[in-house]
Amino acid sequence: MSWMQVEEYLQRDDRAVLPIGSTEQHAYLSLATDNILAERVAVEGAEPLGVPVFPVVNYGITPYFRAYPGTVSLSIATFLAVLRDILDGLAAQRIPPRADRQRPRRQRAGAAARRRVDGVASGTPGQVSTTGGTRRARSPR
What we know:
The chain is an all-alpha fold and about 140 residues long. The chain has a single domain, classed as Rossmann fold (3-Layer(aba) Sandwich). It is about 40% helix and about 0% strand. The protein has helices at about 5-10, 35-45, 75-90, 100-120. The chain is flat and about 45 Å long. The chain starts with a helix and ends in a 22-residue tail after the last helix. The model is unreliable at about 95-105 and about 120-140 (pLDDT under 50).
């Protein structure tokens, strides 16, 4: 999408999808596997709704795969700072405010999502919980 298409879209709706991937080993598959899959799922889910999909955030928190060449892992603080900057930038562009009643509810939902992102900062390296569980690294063989 061009910036003009986004501007026109924001006159009707304020939803968007930001896929999040990572650059890490996948045996014989590409280091970009998570990025490819994140984009594919986002596009297929958003397309029927006409919701724009922004480019994939290509790097994530993957310290458990650092032993594999090509894996790139961000610290939790850096990852959260990148997400905050992206989300804040997108939120600032949702002007002019819509006159309907959906806007305040979505703003509250955005604040709740921001609190959830901020709450991830309590995790420790080597442990990442995306569904309430813990994933631990296995040593490369």
